From TrEMBL, chain A:
Pfam families, per the entry: Ribonuc_P_40
Annotated protein name in UniProt: Uncharacterized protein
GO cellular component annotations of the record: multimeric ribonuclease P complex; ribonuclease MRP complex
Highest taxon of source: Eukaryota
Source species taxonomy: Eukaryota, Fungi, Dikarya, Ascomycota, Pezizomycotina
Originating organism: Aspergillus indologenus CBS 114.80
UniProtKB/TrEMBL annotation, chain B:
InterPro entries listed in its UniProt record: Pop8, Pop8-like_dom
Protein name: Ribonucleases P/MRP subunit Pop8-like domain-containing protein
Gene Ontology cellular component annotations, sorted alphabetically: nucleolar ribonuclease P complex; ribonuclease MRP complex
GO molecular function: ribonuclease MRP activity; ribonuclease P activity
Length: 406, 162
């Protein structure tokens, strides 16, 4: 309306997918390529994970969450790049071990370093890049005006040639000792399976004096939240006769997905607008819960983990929640939906991946058993078995390029 | 080459054939949303010094916030500015790190106008009565995005600060 150019807004996207999860997921070997899993694994550094679910479901799975879910802790450590290459740290954590590290700074203006799978990435401005004398490549600037060209250097420190005394390695050492000398704050997470983020026998990270931070969930209760009907998000079987209506149906579905995503965010924001008791004046807000007339007030619980959280743990969390809320499981009921959302750390300056969220709908129970006798009990078991053979419906959103400043 | 490819396929073929019978799931539907209806803003009300302690700890109520927003839009865009619809989604409690932070949503096409109006506005706190304690106020835009879920938890930059 007001002819203001909004370049940043045009870049923003949300990739939504609706579908069914596989009926069985092996906790030891979860899928990696399919949609909700690819979204989780596509965000290697995550600073907040949030789980939203009805309180009724939470109380039944609370104990198992506490006991079975891997405890997390991470470290904040001040290190210079050259201390990464010191023999002991280098051999233990980079050559033999597997760690996640990310440095402070904002991509696009500061020097930012990340370390993952033994690959050290350095994002640098042109001046610093040229002084290091290492090979790198320019990163795309998205055609932004007045933004200087920036470069990325990728060093695979696990290559056999990356050894103290080798020629190429000496150049890296030189650059770290003479150009990139400043000490920066890093977040550190050890991915070895037996540790919970920091190895117990090395709490000092080879003499680097880290600050160890346990990562426990903050539990927030949201009483009497209007929950819109979620069943309508299920993808129906595409029947050949209904081709004319499918496009209209899809458009409606798209709008619904956007609205539900907004609603989930409102819940995690703890906004009073989604509570059943809210009676705000339309002058102040005209937000309403989608399908408010069919929405039922329910108590919800949000669990929020904050810290450096590896994607593998989030997959574990998802598998755990799926198993606990599965049909016939301890928390099975028509309200046993849950949502996981995560926000990414260290977003790139251009088209950054901001995070994702995933809504898993309750397991389908065909023909609810009334429980009036043995026949019904048997029928119930069959129904549970049948329901388990069906995958759970899910909706996943991946957000790209929001302009968060703080 | 051909002989090896003929002798081998027994296993992968059967695995392939199995798959469709097991899969009762409907195909995945994916789509990209580029132009949603709303844009979300996280704003912080800042007080310009001199300001008394009582003004700082006074909670921000929705009506005052709405008045400040309207004043900013009116100053920059006049009547058409005040016509931009604003929904106040949440006002954070006055204490803590998010002091006087509010979350609003505006129609996406108007978002850049709203940001321009809010960031250029300085309001007089003295209009509320006492000229002694209340200094001027201004809005700071903390976050802007078309998808609220991408914004709610911030950027995580504070985790690096000990």
């Amino acid at each position: 309306m007001l002819e203001f150019n909004d370049d940043a807004s045009r870049r923003e996207k949300c990739f939504t997918s609706l579908g069914q999860l596989p009926p069985f997921i092996d906790p030891k070997q979860p899928p990696t390529r399919k949609v909700p899993f690819s979204a989780i694994l596509g965000h290697p550094f995550v600073h907040t994970v949030e789980v939203t679910l009805p309180k009724e479901a939470y109380t039944t799975i609370q104990a198992s969450l506490d006991s079975k879910l891997q405890k997390l802790r991470y470290a904040r450590v001040f290190m210079s790049l050259s201390s990464l290459l010191e023999t002991e740290f280098f051999n233990t954590y980079i050559k033999k071990g597997n760690i996640l590290m990310i440095s402070e700074g904002r991509s696009g203006s500061d020097s930012v370093f990340t370390l993952r799978d033994g690959i050290l990435k350095l994002e640098l401005s042109r001046e610093i890049f040229e002084r290091t004398g290492l090979t790198g490549k320019p990163i795309r600037s998205g055609g932004r005006k007045h933004a200087k060209e920036r470069y990325i250097i990728e060093l695979n420190l696990r290559l056999p040639s990356m050894l103290h005394g080798k020629k190429g390695f000496k150049r890296i050492e030189w650059a770290f000792q003479n150009v990139l000398t400043q000490s920066v704050a890093w977040l550190f997470f050890d991915l070895s399976s037996e540790t919970n983020g920091i190895a117990d026998d090395d709490l000092s990270l080879k003499g680097n004096h880290p600050q160890l931070i346990p990562c426990t969930p903050a539990i927030t209760e949201h009483p009497q939240i209007l929950v819109p009907p979620l069943d309508t998000l299920k993808l129906m079987d595409p029947s050949p006769t209904a081709t004319a209506t499918t496009t209209a149906h899809q458009e409606q579905l798209q709008n619904q997905c956007t609205e539900i995503s907004e609603w989930l965010a409102m819940v995690s924001l703890a906004s009073p607008r989604v509570t059943a008791a809210d009676d705000v004046d339309p002058y102040l807000s005209r937000y309403s819960v989608p399908d408010a007339d069919e929405a039922a007030p329910t108590d919800l619980v949000t669990l929020r983990w904050r810290g450096l959280i590896p994607p593998k743990w989030i997959v574990g969390l998802l598998v755990h929640l799926l198993r606990e809320t599965a049909a016939g499981g301890s928390a099975a009921s028509s309200s046993a939906w849950f949502a996981i959302s995560a926000n990414a750390l260290g977003r790139e300056a251009v088209e950054a991946r901001d995070g994702y969220s995933l809504l898993v709908l309750p397991a389908v129970m065909p023909a609810a058993p009334s429980g009036r006798g043995e026949d019904d009990a048997k029928g119930g078991k069959d129904a549970i078995a049948a329901a388990r053979r069906m995958g759970r419906h899910y909706v996943s959103w991946e957000f790209v390029a929001a302009s968060v400043l703080q | 080459m051909s002989t090896t490819s003929q002798s081998q396929p027994a296993e992968p073929e059967s695995a392939k054939r199995k798959a469709p019978t097991e899969q009762t799931s409907t195909p995945t539907l994916t789509f990209t949303t580029r132009n949603p209806l709303w844009t979300y803003l996280k704003l912080q009300l800042t007080h310009q010094p001199p300001v008394s302690q009582s003004t700082l700890i006074q909670p921000l109520d929705p009506l005052t916030a709405r008045t400040y927003l309207s004043a900013a839009l009116n100053q920059f865009l006049g009547l058409s500015g005040t016509a931009i619809s604003i929904d106040i989604l949440k006002i954070d409690p006055p204490t803590g790190t998010n002091a006087k932070t509010i979350w609003i949503r505006v129609p996406a096409p108007d978002a850049s106008a709203v940001v321009a109006a809010l960031s250029s506005w300085v309001g007089g706190g003295s209009s509320s009565g006492d000229a002694t304690g209340a200094g001027n106020v201004a809005w700071r835009v903390c976050a802007k995005g078309n998808f609220l879920q991408a914004l709610v938890n911030g950027s995580g930059a504070e985790m690096f600060v000990p």
